[in-house]
Amino acid sequence: MANEFSRRSFIKGMALGTMAGYFGSAGLSSTVFHKQMMPKDNTKKVDIGQIKSLSVKVISETSWFNNAVLLNDIKKSGGLLVNQYEIPWTVEGVKEGYKGNNAGGFATLIEFEELSGKKHKLLLDTGWNVDWTDKRFKEEGIDKMLANKEIEALIISHEHFDHYWGIEATTKYNPNIHVYVPKGFYQEGFDLLKGKAFPKAHVKNDHPHTGKLDVMDSSKIRPIYPGVALVTFDVPIITRVFGEQAFIFNIKDKGLALVTGCCHMGIITYMEFAKKRIVGGEKIYGVQGGMHISPFEDWDPQYDDLVLALHKYGIEKLGPNHCTGYVTAEKMIAAGLPVIKGTARNGSKRNIYLGNGDKLVFA
Q1: N or C, where is the chain less crowded by C-beta within 10 Å?
Q2: What is the distance between the alpha carbons of residues 59 and 355, in angstroms, rounded to a whole number?
Q3: Cβ-proximal residues to 333 (8 Å cutoff; 6+ apart), any chain
């Protein structure tokens, strides 16, 4: 029943917007759409508490290696609304890919300290290509952190291939890790977590999850630690994915820090939600992660208005990467936004924004 609800919600959600191609290139980042996707503001602000410090390390923002190959895979399979588990993704013969595989993946290590001094580590997403993800895990010591249970939980931003399908890269080291997923996951996603393989899509999980699983309700602010909360947005996404969750941190004496996987709900929606629903939301100190603006470098003039609109939030640290197009980062820098640059190493192509192995320290 829940799975059928998600399917109907996906179709209904797509109808609320515009053409599927728009969602593929911009998510809901346009200022035009944020009001349609903003949860109803009918409750008082939530006090999630505060933290002392926060840092975010990019493990992999290289979701795939060749845009054209990825888009061709989707096109050949029937287009942007095709079930991702039914697409025979290209896993060999890609010159710039990892061992010929076009798949890479997105994963981020989050470290924060409570006011009490207690420290925590969380993993946001777990890549796509297990070999690539495992390579990056080992290079950054994530494998040992998982095996030693230093990383307390895995938060899946959304069900997309490049954020979730590398699940066994995490569960091979700690199958009992606490996992959070957003409402909207399909049965295939739950089956993959339990160990089912999808040969057509070249995805498997030989290390079934045995730990606690939380499915996060939409539009509800869910504090998971003092000063740390998750919120899930009902948003339709390409390849029949539905729903995305993201972090809200409240840093003492700084303001809110927002950390996202892809931000398909739109950066304006995300910030407006935090501003209106979280105590301390009048100051958004920083944003890090994928911002889903022109990920395939197909710039649209309306994005210029979006970039300029970001100024009004007074952000002091802006860490775009992943599905934020390079042209977007260039536009942000030209507009005078405080974009944090990277080092262009470990497979990241340019230093224009945070890349693989780069860390953003908020406080």
Answers
A1: N
A2: 8
A3: 339, 352
- 128/153 Cα distance (integer angstroms): 18
Q: Which two tokens stand for residue 343?
A: 């080092």
- Which pLDDT value is given to residue 226? 98
Nearest one of 34, 54, 17 to 254, comparing CA atoms:
54
Specify the pLDDT at position 40. 55
Q: Is 301 exposed, middle or buried (CB count within 10 Å of its CB: 0-12, 13-18, 19+)? A: exposed
Secondary structure class of 5 (helix, strand, coil): helix
Rg for the chain (alpha carbons), in Å?
A: 19
Question: Residue holding tokens 């798949």?
Answer: 103
**What confidence category does residue 1 fall into, taking pLDDT thresholds of 50, 70 and 90?**
very low
Q: Are 200 and 206 in contact (CB under 8 A)?
A: no
CA angle 67, 200, 79 (to 5 degrees): 45
Which range is least confidently modeled, 38-52, 294-308, 343-357? 38-52
pTM summary value: 0.91
User: What digits encode the pLDDT tens for the residues 36-58?
Assistant: 445 455 578 999 999 999 999 99
Given its phi and psi angles, is residue 60 left (phi above 0), alpha (psi -120 to 50 degrees) or beta? beta
- Is residue 165 classed exposed, middle or buried when 0-12, 13-18 and 19+ CB atoms within 10 A define those classes? buried
Superfamily of domain 2-361, CATH level 4: Ribonuclease Z/Hydroxyacylglutathione hydrolase-like (3.60.15.10)
Q: Is the pLDDT of residue 3 over 70?
A: no
H runs (alpha helix) in the chain: 2-16, 20-26, 34-37, 67-77, 130-140, 142-147, 161-164, 167-171, 187-194, 267-277, 302-309, 326-334
Quick one: average pLDDT of 316-335? 96
- Residue 173 near residue 90, CB atoms below 8 Å: no
Query: What are the residue ranges spanned by the domains of the chain?
Result: 2-361
Instruction: Give percent of the chain above pLDDT 90.
Output: 85
